[in-house]
Specification:
This protein is 63% helix and 0% strand. The protein is an all-alpha fold. Helix 6 (132-146) packs parallel to helix 8.
Length: 224
Amino acid sequence: MSDAPKFEVIDRRKQKKLEEERGEQSGTEAAETVPPADEAATASAAVPSPGPNAGPRLVVNESKHEAAAEEAVPEEAEQNVAEAQGAPGMPPAPSAEESREQKMAYEVAAQRLEDILRAQNPGVGKQPAITFEHLVQQFYVSAMIQMGAGTQEGQRPQIDILGARNTIDLLGVLYEKTQGNLTDTEDRTLRSVLFEVRMAFLDLTSMINMQSVTAPPPPPPGKR
């Protein structure tokens, strides 16, 4: 037996032919996975086309698109929406019809109550209608009482200086919000009352400051 190495002769032409056949077979399989032109056209037709004036629309992520649209809303539009919805925790505003019906019911109930009171007290006349002057007068009386007016002689006045300040500030708000909507008499009354209560407040706070300055200092802690 000879130990000489053995050689195998390979026909490269047959190998090349086999590679070409394999390449054609893989190309055929790939072509089968691609949808025909008619099917592709049908699939594209199923998607609604935008109008002639419509711009490009990104549909990759709808949530991001909606968030961007919300950020694009002007601040004024957001404020209008917030005002329409009302403040948090507040019920929706009544409609005009509901307000009208409620006002009529209130007037009927108030008239019934007045009739009962006049029947029990025949000497009591009809109550006058409430006007703007009554509102201003109510604030004036409240502010003066809070600053100690009306205290009986010999008694120490009870002063609510913070409450008086709030009442005076309410009168100031009333004055600012009613500008251009008052008669000459109403405007003069409101300005006069606001001037008087502010002057009374200045006098009272001056007295409080003087008392705090002249008062003796408190004793040190631990000593009596």
